[in-house]
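yo

u said u wanted the structure for the complex thing, so here. seqs first:
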Amino acid sequence: MSDVAASPIRRIAGSRWQALADALIPLILSLLIAAVVLALAGHNPFDVYRLLAVESFGGTRRIAATLSSATPLVLTGLATAIAFRAGAFNVGIEGCVYIGGLAAAYIGFAWTGLPAAFLIPTALLASVIVGGLWMLVPGVLKARLDVDEVVTTLMLNFIAVSLTSWLVNGPLLARGSANSATPMIAAAARLPELLPPSTLNLGFVIAVLCLVLYSLWSRRTALGLETKLAGMNPRFAVASGIDVPMLLIKMMIVSGAIGGLAGGVHALGNVHRFVAGFSPGYGFTGIAIALLGRGSATGILLAAILFGALATSGATIQLFSDVPIEIVNILQGMVMIFAVARFGWLYAGRRRA
Amino acid sequence: MEPDPTIRLGARGVTRRFGDLVANDRIDFAARRGTVHAIVGGNGAGKSTLMRILQGMDRPDEGSVLVDGEPAVFSGPAHAFAKGIGMVHQEFMLVPGLTLLENLVLAHEPVGALGSIDRKAALEAARSLEQEAGVRLDWNVAVEDAPVHVRQIVEILRLLYRGADVLILDEPTAVLAPAQVRELIALLRKLKEEGRTILFISHKLDEVLSVADAITVLRAGRVIGTTTAAETDKAKLAEMMIGEAIHMPSARPAAVSAPALELSAIAARDGRGVAKLAGIDLTVRGGEIVGVAGVAGNGQDELAGAVTGLHPVEAGRVVLCGSDMAGRSLHERRMRGLAYLSPERGTEGLCLAAPILENAIAGHQRRADLCGGGVLRANAIRKHVETLLDRYSVKRHSAGQPIGSLSGGNQQRVAIARELDGDPKLLVACQPTRGVDIRGIAFIHQCLLDFRGRGGAVLLISEELDEIITLSDRIIVLYGGRVTGEVERGAAGIETIGRMMLGEKAA
Amino acid sequence: MINDVIHSAFIMTTPVLLAALGGLLNRVGGLVNIGLDSMMLVGALLGIIVSSATGSWGLALVAAAIAGAVLGLLMSLVVTRLDANEIIVGLGFNVAVAGLVRFFLKSVYGAAGTLNLPNVVMMPRLHIPLVADIPVLGAILSGHDLLTWAAWTLVPVTAWFLSRTRLGLRLRAAGAAPQAARALGLDPLTLRDGSTVFAGLMAGLAGAYLSIGVVGIFNEGITAGRGFIALAAFYFGRNRPWLTAFGALIFGFFDAVQIRLQGRGVPAELVQTLPYIMVIVILTVVALAARRSKPKGA
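structre next:
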């Protein structure tokens, strides 16, 4: 929206402690509010939180499960953070996950008989390419015509969900299958598991590798600096001779490509095919992660692990107790809301004029 | 002390600190009813802070504001206004998208049936204010379509409409041509005779001397003295303002070389499609400073934009160091030797939230000595930036601090250091000393003259006529998007140029 | 056939129009409301619960309006008082409220996503005698409920409110230049809060329209993204009430056509993408037109 400040991420020139406090305050507030919701529903919030913690981090197997469910989130968080860094409010990563997942799954089940060393990279590359192309349109529209990317990327989410749903109900529906799903992918297309029998797989390594590259890129390269300046103050960047519209298009494509990769990794590593309702909101969780992580690689990793833990333990406790898993969505939404709020006035004496 | 009711608005011992900085240090002054009281001082003298306090937007840490001789504490601008104190801001506070009439009555609308605005009553009120002020306006124009001096008049009339009898005017003449300044002064005199009190904040001494009854001089947050127009003169005031004689650089002609910039028949429109430049021809050679004088909004922005490529041209040629720049981006122009000092330092010239270091290399980040294969050379950059900052005497804790934490003068030093880095051929310098303290002004002027001495070409666009006259080898005057005059150094005084600025052709 | 399409187009327009008018005023007041969909969802849920419990559709509307307004107030306070980015906060509300609604359904009703309550009283539809029999006109005017009439009445009222009333003028000032409004002694943040409360109220009514005006049961997907369609409508209308209503009508028409096409072998999923594609196309066309008209100008 043109009447909204350029970048959703506030870069605070404070200390590390300040940054930590900025990340913790929204978290604590969200946990408090969710605790009230739990209490109202007749659960003991402390028991629920303790159970969540134990189910997430109590033992190697559980940690592996947490990291496994954090894998797509690292990538969606990163994808969102890159767009935010360039000053684009990309809220369309959810759609990229869908079409990226379908593209990888298609290669995975259609090109059988190929070796893993060829099949996996090809399938992931396909997810990267379609994800990038999916963000090309909103990127170009924003850069060249100043069409609001919030609206276009939001709309593209709905389109991606319906489009993939049509494909898996019709042309790509598994033979003899009644539900909306593609055939299972070839065994060679599955991402190798790191700690069997857990589902933790090569995807996690790929995701962390992307984070490392992002960290180096953002701090050490000319393009990283240009992106940062363009995101913080586009007018300044333009006056410095940086081609901001082109940069915006490039970064939207990169953002979409990583969002597509998130889908590809999820399809090849966890689901092993594409089904309707493929992503439980990974793209939107990615927004919360990017905000909570304040655009830093470490921050994104930690936030993704946190939400991964919530997702995996939330599913478990729904099985063993009657706490609905939606408590995770409530927490996630609250984190988004509070991550962009400014609490400075809580401890500063006077409010800004 | 006995309250003195003839003091309509004043301050007693007003002190305001921001961290270590004492913006106002025990300020005393007293504006009497029915007078024009001027507050003068350079940048950073504490004028803006004092104005915010007088207007209820900020509160003093110590001391108090005096209203009708009595100490008063304002809860906010509304409270100050209830006591009759209103302000015309430097950046006008009219609401875009609303008409002048809507702006006039906003927040005090005459109401008819169902909460609807009684437009007839509003227009009647506007007409009677017009008579009082001796002006005539078209009230149904949208704010953004009204010329700047009309907007200023509307702001003043709005204060009267709402019942203010103390008017605080913050640098009101900055955006006006000399003739419009005289009109404004006449208007202020008229209001004074009707018994209103006017606080006139300015650093332009001629205007202050011609309009003010009493003058209070601020420097570095303190009152240096209060005097009257009769008792003082320009030289004395200047000395009080500055405190010491600052050696202002003076320019002597240098050897000129080949043209660095050639503009021919340039035409351009602004964002709303209004023609802003028509048939501009202009050449700037190496070793000369060409000043562009004119009232704001007469095509200066578009002229700078045409040279930098930030604003599209409709017709004409831009030739930079011999090559045609048609369709070339700012980046390509910079590669050809263009440098551009933006008029809006805070929003375009610098990225205030980013570190000094990044601001100092922006635009040069891919230069071979700072970057190899797309990877930044961190050590080389640090060394280069430190050298640059030292050479331009930028006061700083470290190159890593956000540039927004520097003073305006130091910010501008970083901006000019960056622009003159890497041996450009042409510098487009827009409002180079806006918001810069007097020492910084002298420094920046010297930078421009040194650059010219090295054979550089400068296109200087400024609203400070003094600055243009001091520095320029040649002055062109823009009015309505056309060149209405061109004078060589020393060939014309401020009055002649002032007439050209209002469209009167040179004799 | 054509009468049916026209009639259902107007029915599908109503929820979008209600929310879009609220969002329009909200945007004029300076806040782009991405959370409309969450307010609609809560309105739909409360509408059906209260209608079932009390047997009164009037009370149900009041409850839905209040629920939406409260949600709007909460959202506005986070944006205006905690200085938070409105887009992220809006998205956060959508995520959190969707979770909360499902959590609530599971905890209280043991229902997964769909709530089918007994004794739901639907809003009555007003059949206008004689007019109902006139082709086209009858389809447009007759057989609608109170909210549809209210929504269309509010279009000129909103236009009048913005251009002619004191509050409308102040709201415009608060949105366009909050600093200037503050300097005049107005309270732009409170004005903005007020407009968000109104947007929430309208979205709540829009939700209730879906649950007790059209469907009769509640489903977690009942809004089908109409809060976002409303957003697109007031973007399309560029803050002009009549143009916004026209935008809402286009989307309503698409919705109606889509339902027809689904029965004719056209894949439902593909047809469902049409309104969203339309939004992108329309925004692009508007931007192209704005760009083309600019250089020519006055």
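Confidence is low (pLDDT under 50) at residues 1-13, 346-353 of chain A. The two ends of chain A are 25 Å apart (CA to CA).
cya
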